[in-house]
Amino acid sequence: MENNRPFWTSKYSFIITTIGSAVGLGNIWRFPYIMGQYGGAIFLAVYILIISTICFIPLMNELYIGKTTKKECVGAYESINKNFKYLDALNPITGVLIASFYFIVGGWIINYIFKSLVNSNINDWGQYFSAFIQAPVYPCILTLLFISICIFFTAKGLKNGIERANKLFMPLLAVILIFLVIVSLNLPNAQKGLEYMFKPDFSKLNFHMVLAALGQAFFTLSIGMGALLTYGSYIKEDKSLVKSVYTIILSDTAFALLAGIMIFPAVFSFNMEPNSGAGLVFVTLPKIFSNIPYGNLIAFSFFILLFSAALTSGISIIEGPCATLIERFKITRIRASIILFFIISFIAIPTTLSFSVLGDLKIFGKTLFDFLDFTTSNIMLPVNTLFLCLISGWYLKIKGGDIIRNKIGVFLFNVGLKFIVPIALVCLIYMGLK
Ligand code: TRP
């Protein structure tokens, strides 16, 4: 089976696909609203510090384990130590659960793309959004549609599906983002938004915010569910990954920053609230689009942008569990994709309904959607990363030359794997549970 594994067709394919995984709803939807909630510039400063230092370690670690073992998650853990095999069944399970709520938002985006194509005179976008997600049938159909699109690319394989989608949608995403940044910066009072983003207010600095920044950084880099490990396992040549890892971190941060520069000037220009939470993209922005010239065109571009970001990340979320099914159960990619379609739909449909008919079904006081979002982002992702760092740090014993050529770098990397990142993760899990 191992000889049948696919490989990236080029280094460019690997980098653009990994950036495609990283740049997603986390950058364009979650980052701006979390930054809004934690006070703007100061959050950004802490975030940049964290993403460029601590995050290097688990990101490199996941890619490296994939690259050296050339196996999907479960097999990779097993080849480090037999006892870890079951521990790592957690990774593909996390993937399926993340997919089940991430793809619902993908469905919402499709709806907003359709909406921007027709001239709808909606005055109250807040009301529109709640009525839309509370309708039982339509959002389910859209969720299924989004799942099908992602599965389609997965089923087509690494070269013809996954790479192709990323090579098409990532450049499109970049071009639309730059276009929208220019539009936003030309709105009246745009500089107020920039001040909000770049003038830090140090009084807002606190520990909770640092952990929020850490959680956001992990999520946006796709760390913690074996997606990167699987992508790493498709690397053929034995070259150092240091440059690639920094390219990924830098690009991901650039996309998040540009998303902020696109959103905040517009929000301030129209005297809206920057801290309106998850509704920022689905309520606040559509309100703004209805009030600017060529609003429909701009709304259309924006939601295509969001769709491209969600799609390339969605594909990476599926690839981890898909590779596990293919290699563990020795089945074809097509069959694995069909099985995943059914499993993900089976969880995603009731989750979509948690905004309507299943709204009263509560798990630990949370609706199904909130429960899945909470358990995966706050608990499962950090727990998976914790295991992976400890296993590499204490069992794999990464030597100089494996990853980083200079001695101090290797020393810091190992200390990071054994102590720094695990401590940070334990704090994150603790805060998440509180
Ligand atoms: N990083 C993506 C985003 O920012 C989401 C994502 C894709 C992800 N694959 C992942 C998150 C794996 C955690 C783990 O939207």
Account of the protein in words:
This protein is mainly alpha-helical and about 425 residues long. It has a single domain, classed as Hydantoin permease (Orthogonal Bundle), CATH 1.10.4160. Helix content is about 75%, strand content about 0%. The chain has 18 helices and no strands. The protein has helices spanning about 10-20, 25-35, 40-50, 55-70, 75-80, 90-115, 125-135, 135-155, 160-185, 190-200, 205-220, 225-235, 240-270, 280-290, 295-330, 335-355, 370-395, 405-434. The mean pLDDT is about 90. Tryptophan binds near residues 222, 225 and 317.
Summarize the model shown.
With 434 residues, the protein is mainly alpha-helical. It has helices at residues 11-22, 25-37, 41-52, 56-69, 73-80, 90-117, 125-134, 137-155, 158-185, 190-198, 207-220, 227-233, 242-269, 279-290, 295-329, 333-353, 368-396, 407-433.
Indicate the CATH class. Answer: Mainly Alpha
Radius of gyration: 21 Å
User: What is the mean predicted local confidence, pLDDT?
Assistant: 92
Intertermini distance: 45 Å
Structural shape? globular
Question: Helical amount among residues, as a percent range?
Answer: over 70%
- Major sheet attributes: none
Total number of distinct structural domains: 1
Bound molecules: tryptophan
- Architecture in CATH? Orthogonal Bundle
β content, as a range?
under 5%
CATH superfamily annotation: Hydantoin permease
Low-confidence runs: none
Count of helical stretches: 18
DSSP E strands, number: 0
Q: What class, by secondary structure content?
A: mainly alpha
Instruction: Give the H and E element order.
Output: HHHHHHHHHHHHHHHHHH
What is the CATH topology?
Hydantoin permease
